[in-house]
Design goal:
alpha/beta, 515 residues, 2 domains, two-stranded antiparallel ribbon, Ferritin, Rossmann fold
């Protein structure tokens, strides 16, 4: 199917499915599981039909094709009673909800790796809604390729997250943010870990990165995840399966549990953890080697940061989303930050503007650690990037990055690292304008390489705005909403700096009082 045709199918499917929900009594959260389950069923049916003729041709009366034969081809076995064609053809009076529940049980029974993963509760949906959904998805196995099902699943995850607002952000990180993280940590090969994995989007984008570089993700990557919410783990496992990946996803509270024995174990760590969580039991985390310093404030940001750092092996890279306030936090948190910077692990810091996330409208910062840069020319430096003025306005409340913007930012990092740039998305001219000699230079308002001494002079702040300065921007007639968003970004940055200065004053006054 052509790209334009597939894009139209993707839009049509969501529009139709969302209209059905609007005409039902279901909330987006109640509707999400059953719909994603049917997309998964269509994908399993498609893959099964792809290999069935060949396996049946090889079978004999004494040796019929078995579920093991399908699994050997990395294909789920789909019993007759679980086929979409069977479900669509059921008599009018049959209990359709029970039949779909039974289909999910049949698939799980034939594929042990899916045990307790597929959704149930289809009997709670109105029969008319179920019938329409089946008619919507039933033709897909004959119309689409395997990759298309993964894209459709991603579309639905994204749209459900947008519909559910803050709750949606708990299981979904916007793709453009994830792709930027992936492009900067460059997970070509190795073990990837996400201790707050949600619906598994970080793993999927890692796989796509490998495939964009003409390698097999299933051969090159091993994925491991933890997720506190039991209802989200099935979303991740289905997401991995739809993209041809297998992984070890566990239900766990990553503050207190470490099911993957993560200390020093991973090549790559990626995460979008919950921000500013309070109430973590500090007695339970004390003594855990993942948390060498237990921060005094009732805020878990630096527990997450230390956990990500601890999980890396001696050459590992991490990329994660963090609240802006963490970059300037004082007292014990500043001490943790100082230790991280002095260790040489902090590599790149990227400021992101407002409205990129469903959980928070405020700007955030992407942190990148690289233990492999120790004993290199970059050991004593950190690259600060201000990307707050780069975005595409999707609607009044949401932004993302265009592919060329992601490529541009990633290439700035590649220049800083002395790596070969990549210009697949056509940003050669943009790169040449700012880096005419093809080598990294500081660009006011965009990027600055700061030494450890410069960072110490700023109170160990890792807020990019402190280092990059402000770019000169001509009046381009942009609308008020965009101007207001930029002013709010600047206000947030100045507020962060004010908090850091207040912390410095507190320390100075306390020193005088204690003397």
């Amino acid at each position: 199917m052509k790209t334009d045709d597939l894009a139209q199918v993707r839009r049509t499917l969501w529009t139709a499915a969302d209209e059905m929900r609007a005409n039902s009594t279901l909330s987006p959260a109640e509707y999400r599981g059953p719909v994603l389950g049917l997309i998964f069923l269509a994908y399993a049916d498609h893959r099964f039909e792809q290999v069935r003729p060949e396996l049946e041709a090889m079978a004999t009366a004494r040796r019929p094709a078995t579920a093991d034969d399908y699994r050997a081809r990395s294909v789920l076995f789909v019993p007759d009673g679980a086929r979409l064609s069977h479900l669509v053809a059921l008599p009018e009076g049959q209990d359709l909800g029970r039949a779909i529940d039974d289909a999910m049980k049949l698939i799980e029974g034939s594929n042990p790796e899916l045990r307790d993963v597929l959704p149930r509760g289809y009997q709670r949906l109105e029969k008319s809604i179920l019938s329409e959904l089946l008619r919507l998805f039933a033709p897909l196995p004959r119309q689409l390729s395997g990759d298309a099902f993964g894209l459709i699943y991603e579309d639905f995850l994204s749209n459900f997250a947008a519909s559910e607002g803050r709750l949606g952000g708990e299981f979904f990180t916007p793709y453009s943010i994830v792709r930027l993280i992936v492009e900067i940590i460059e997970p070509f090969h190795g073990k990837v870990y996400d201790p707050a994995c949600g619906s598994g989007g970080m793993f999927v984008q890692c796989a796509k990165f490998v495939e964009r570089h003409n390698e097999s993700a299933t051969r090159e990557l091993s994925v491991y995840g933890s997720e506190q919410k039991g209802g989200t783990v099935p979303l991740a496992k289905m997401n991995l399966a739809l993209h041809g990946l297998s992984g070890d996803i566990r239900i766990a509270n990553s503050y207190y549990e470490d099911p993957h024995h993560s200390f020093g174990a991973f090549d790559f760590v990626m995460a979008n953890p919950p921000f500013n969580v309070n109430g973590v039991d500090k007695e339970k985390v004390a003594g855990d080697p993942r948390f060498p310093v237990v921060p005094k404030p009732d805020n878990a940001n630096y527990l997450w940061i230390q956990q990500f750092n601890a999980a890396l092996n001696s050459t590992g890279r991490a990329g994660f989303v963090m609240a802006n306030s963490a970059g300037d936090a004082g007292h014990s948190e500043r001490e943790i930050r100082r230790q991280l910077v002095e260790s040489g692990a902090v590599d790149v810091m990227v400021a992101i503007g407002t409205n990129f996330f469903y959980t928070v409208t405020l700007p955030v910062t992407l942190w990148f650690l690289d233990k492999g840069k120790r004993s290199t020319a970059r050991e004593d430096t950190v690259l600060f990037l201000d990307a707050r003025h780069l975005y595409r306005q999707i609607d009044r409340a949401h932004r993302d990055f265009l592919p060329e913007q992601i490529e541009f930012l990633a290439n700035v990092v590649r220049l800083y690292r002395g790596e070969q740039v990549e210009t697949v998305d056509g940003i050669g001219a943009m790169l040449a304008e700012r880096f005419p000699d093809g080598a990294y230079v500081d660009v006011p308002g965009l990027c600055k390489v700061a030494t450890r001494a410069e960072i110490e002079a700023q109170g160990w702040s890792v807020n990019p705005g402190r280092y990059t300065g402000t770019a000169t921007v001509e009046d381009d007639g942009e609308n008020f909403a965009e101007q207001l968003a930029e002013l709010y970004d600047e206000f947030s940055r100045l507020s962060d700096e004010a908090s850091a200065l207040r912390a410095n004053v507190d320390v100075a006054v306390q020193a005088v009082l204690d003397s």
